Every structure is written in structure tokens, then in C-alpha cells.
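Re: weekly structure request thread

Next one in the queue (227 aa):
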Amino acid sequence: MSENPVEAHVGHAQRDGRGVIETAFALLDYISVLEPVRLVDLAEVSGFARPTVYRMLHQLIEVGAVRRDGSRYRLGASLLGLGARVAPERRLRVAARRPIAELAAITGAAVSLSATVGDEVVFLDAVEARVPLGFVAEPGAHVPSGTAQARAHREFGRTAPIVDVGGVQADLSCVAVAVPLGTGDVAAVSTVVAGARPTPALIAATRTAAARIAGLIRAPENRSAPG
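Done, posted below.
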């Protein structure tokens, strides 16, 4: 007797330590940011095995949550309105996850993402430096005032990188770049390294990551605009 495909997926997800619902929502998060996206790219960015992604996409298509467009996948019509109501901080974290991970890998710096939540500027996500610097930007913690990252939020409209030498700690330097969200608000991405002054390469890499995040945030609006 052949195995039920839903039961097979449940068993696979449980063996991976992940629930089916958790897997589904993670994939929907990535599709909402990257659509139209290929199966191979979903598997790469999510970290799920390709057969798991394939089976879950098939089930999401059946319930109208996802639609297939050739070899690429998009959110289904039933989720478009719901997606517009997802907390912007969550969408920002999903859009930024890969760019900040790659920025950390390329530079070896500690990388963090921040946003204004309510009236507070807080860290949303962070990646530790390759060689730990002695502090961690914990998600949910306040961004220290006076730092380059705090200034990127406060100096609204400034797109040039802000360099902060010794503002957080005497032997550390920081680069922060604002990420316009298209809503009149900004987020910020920052890199922190040991040393008296960041290199031009670090400044350029931080700026590129911020631009990538801004592009991913704006992408759904651009796709929905009339041609």
C-alpha cells in the first residue's frame, strides 16, 4: 500500500524537527518577498530539502495559497489581501535575512537590522561577527542612542553611510545605512568591526546590502503596479 503524501510530508517534517505549519508559513514568507521564485531558490534560501519544498508547494497550490507560473511560484489570490496586513517588521526581517547573512559572511563583521517599532528604535535581527566582538545585538533590544545605527533612523532622508568610530566601544567602529521602506519610515542595516576605522570595502558592502533590502521591500509594489 502506497504512503499517503500528506502523511509522508508530516513524517518528514517531524523528523527534521519542524512542524508542517511552521514549514508552510516559512515558505509563504519567502515567496511573498521573492516572488516569482523558483523551487530551487526557495530550497536554497529556506534551508529545507528540495523534496520537502516541492511537496509543501503542491499542498499550498491545492488550497489556493500559492499559484504556479511556469517554473516559478507566487502567492495565491487568497493570500494577497492577508499579506498586505502582515506586520511590516516581519516582512522586513524576511526580506533582510539573506542580505544580512551574506553581508556577515563576506565581511566577517557583526551585522544587525533595526526598525522603529512604536516609538522605539529596536534591533530586529543580528548576525554575530566571525570573531566575536564581545557584545550581541539582541532582537528586541533598544538601539543605543548616539550610535551610527540610531542616527540612520534619526537623520531621515540621509542615504549616505554613517560612520561611527568608537561610539559603541572604544576599539570598535560601525557603518550604518538607512533602508527606506516606502512608507515614510526607514530601517537601518549596520556592520561593526574591530579597529579604528572601517575600510572602504566594508562601507561599500554595507551600502549594497541596504540597497538590496530596500529593493526587496519595494518589489511587491513594483510587481503589482500596472505595466
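The CA atoms of residues 38 and 69 lie 10 Å apart. Residues 1-18, 221-227 have pLDDT under 50 and may be disordered.
Next request, please.
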